């Protein structure tokens, strides 16, 4: 009986889905969050963006300020490299286009530029500052 149960489960398992391939990821178009405000500073661009307040943080605010905010404003200071990538994000250029421009501006190898730009875009995406639009053709 147990063999029958385990064998039926083994048949039901599907192979793990792999993530998007490199070519597909590089063809995606990064798009800025329209609620993000940018301010030029000496050090680079300062981004201010809204985030959903965590329940434990709301309780702290309520105790300290007497109110319970749903949305709070976060700030992210970009250095010169991050600022140069941020300025290239226009919703029309792909990750690959931005990587190539970054490579030329900073005299890097293409693979090094792709990795740097891709990792930076992942961090921006995790913070909700950008989204990646799927490419029309790959």
How would you characterize this protein structure?
It is a single chain. The chain starts with a helix and ends in a 5-residue tail after the last strand. With 138 residues, it is α+β, with helices and mostly antiparallel strands. The protein has a domain at 23-48 and 77-131: Coenzyme PQQ synthesis protein D (PqqD) (Arc Repressor Mutant, subunit A, Orthogonal Bundle), CATH 1.10.10. It has six helices and five strands. It is elongated.
Topology (SSEs and partners):
Blueprint: H1 2-12, H2 22-27, E1 29-32, E2 37-40, E3 45-52, H3 55-65, E4 71-77, H4 80-88, H5 95-106, H6 110-126, E5 130-133
Antiparallel strand pairs: 1-5, 2-3, 3-4
In short:
48% of the residues lie in helices and 20% in strands. The chain has 138 residues and is α+β, with helices and mostly antiparallel strands.
């Amino acid at each position: 009986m147990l063999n029958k149960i385990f064998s039926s489960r083994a048949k039901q398992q599907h192979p793990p889905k792999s993530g998007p391939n490199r070519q597909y990821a590089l063809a995606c178009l990064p798009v800025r969050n329209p609620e993000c405000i940018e301010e030029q500073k000496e050090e680079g661009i300062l981004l201010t963006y809204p985030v959903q307040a965590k329940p434990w943080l709301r309780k702290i605010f309520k105790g300290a300020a007497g109110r319970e905010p749903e949305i709070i404003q976060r700030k992210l200071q970009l250095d010169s490299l991050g600022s140069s990538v941020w300025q290239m994000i226009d919703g029309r250029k792909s990750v690959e286009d931005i990587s190539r421009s970054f490579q030329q501006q900073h005299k890097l190898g293409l693979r090094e530029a792709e990795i740097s730009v891709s990792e930076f875009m992942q961090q921006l995406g995790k913070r909700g500052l950008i989204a990646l639009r799927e490419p029309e053709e790959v």
